[in-house]
Amino acid sequence: MEGTNPVNKKLAAALSSGAVLVLALSGCSSDDGNEKLDSWAKTVCDAVQPQAKKIENANAAIQKETSDNSKPADVQSTDSQAFQDMSDAYKAIGSAVDKAGAPPVDGGEKKQKDAVKELNAISASYADLKKQVDKLDTKDQAKFADGLKGIAGELDKLSQSGSDALKKLEEGDVGKAMAKQDSCKSASSSPAPSKS
């Protein structure tokens, strides 16, 4: 891979791990029946599926752009669009969880509110990364690489810190109900690198 910038590789790796957040939205399968909870899970999973696809596509675009010996301007425009798409997707998932209301489980309201808050914060972080990548100097390869390195570092932090509230939302029966939904199964079926 002569001439490929290692920073681009780092960025691609950091991005991939960030996508795992949404794909965490499915747990282990269960046959326990709870119609209200199943209905809630279906509402959320159906809304998550297209957004998970959007995030996956944004990741794929970045992977493709960083795997070749791409021009900084091309990397910049691809990353910028990908960050925008991710920001929109997390915001949409936050809205979906908000609209679905609290899951009918103990402490459901707190879990739901925390998850919505977190999803909106992740969305804002990606919007901020988009602004940062838009400001990078594409005419100076070294400066551009440095800028990307900083963004990759922030992405890394984002992917590691982001999923606590989502995990809490999916604990116990909620996760089991979500795991039964076809739309959540397909949202999590694509392989994504995990840090755990």
What characteristics describe this protein?
8 helices
Query: Which blocks of ≥5 consecutive residues have pLDDT under 50?
Result: 26-31, 190-196
Overall geometry comes to elongated
The run of helices and strands is HHHHHHHH
Helix content: over 70%
Could you report the average pLDDT, rounded to the nearest whole number?
79
Label the structural class.
Answer: mainly alpha
C-alpha Rg, in Å? 18 Å
Instruction: Assess the beta-strand content as a share of residues.
Output: under 5%
DSSP summary: helix tally: 8
Major pleated sheet:
none
Number of E strands: 0
Can you describe this structure in just a few lines?
The protein is mostly helical.
How would you sum up this structure, described in words?
- With 196 residues, the chain is mainly alpha-helical.
- The chain contains 8 helices and no strands.
- It has helices spanning 6-23, 35-67, 72-100, 108-135, 141-161, 164-169, 172-179, 182-188.
- The chain is elongated, with a radius of gyration of 18 Å.
- Residues 26-31 and 190-196 have low confidence and may be disordered.
Q: Which secondary structure elements does this structure contain, and how are they paired or packed?
A:
Blueprint: H1 6-23, H2 35-67, H3 72-100, H4 108-135, H5 141-161, H6 164-169, H7 172-179, H8 182-188
Helix pairs in contact: 1-2, 1-5, 2-3, 2-7, 2-8, 3-4, 4-5
